[in-house]
Task: structure prediction
Amino acid sequence: MTSPRAGTGPDVIHARFDPDALTAWTPSRTFFVDPDLCRRYAAATNEPDPERWASGVAPPLLCVVATVPHVHTVLQQNLPERARAENRSVHGEHDLHYHEPVVPGSTLLVRGRLYGVHPRSTGTVLVTQVEMTDPGSGRVVHEEHFVNFLRGVMTDEAIGQAPAEHRLPDVASLGEPAATVSYGVDADQTFRYAEASGDHSIYHLDDTAARAAGFAGIIVHGLCTMAFAGRAVVGHACGGDASRLRRLAVRFSRPMYPAHTMTTTLWSPPERGEPAGRFRFQVNDDQGVTVITDGLAQVGPVGKDGEAT
Result:
């Protein structure tokens, strides 16, 4: 008996994506970078001094509070109805670009659009771009690319752009790590993160629902796990100065579970011809499972006065 050919069978959804959607931005919304929200988000991701994030520079992952709703809008507008009903979309990768520091107390405009659609052998990659701009000048301050994999959704035509590459080279070739950092993930982490981020997805809060979906229990939000990794990057690649962070990109490979320890390993391999300030990283849980791979951080230099440039 032969296996069905990829892209066929009753579980497959055939879809066509409209190229006109690539220029259809979601309506702009105002986002006030509330210092109290910065403080609460930092506390929900176990920053040791949440108060420090209420001034200066916002937590590196704070902007997802404002960007995720635009991604939901883009998915709602572009996914086939059956794919939405069957929850076929999986958040596979996330890529943040920090063109300027996001400052507590400032106001930004946020909008998103379909950035690209790319067929794969078992589904489709859909990329959403969300940008945050300064209302006065129009400068892009912050930009994110969400990569969602649509399981069993097949399309014949690629449209738009592919996400920027951040694949991790073979770990064995990277040499000794520049840093290895471990943090405990609390038993109530997902509940605290849900309140601070606004993401109340059921698999992060309901054990029965998570197990019914095939998980071993409640899973940690991927962006919460990324925030923990970002904390390690800022502490050890940026010298504790988040304003130096220029890019943070990851691929989510396995779920992280509460009440476990996660370890971020960072490499800085200039001998491989990497640009200055580029770090590679991955995150493992305390069972040795890699939960984040293909981690890339780009860090800006420190100026003569000690400020990031």
Remarks:
- Residues 7-164 form a domain with the Thiol Ester Dehydrase; Chain A fold (CATH 3.10.129.10).
- Confidence is low (pLDDT under 50) at residues 1-6.
- The first strand starts at residue 13 and ends at 14.
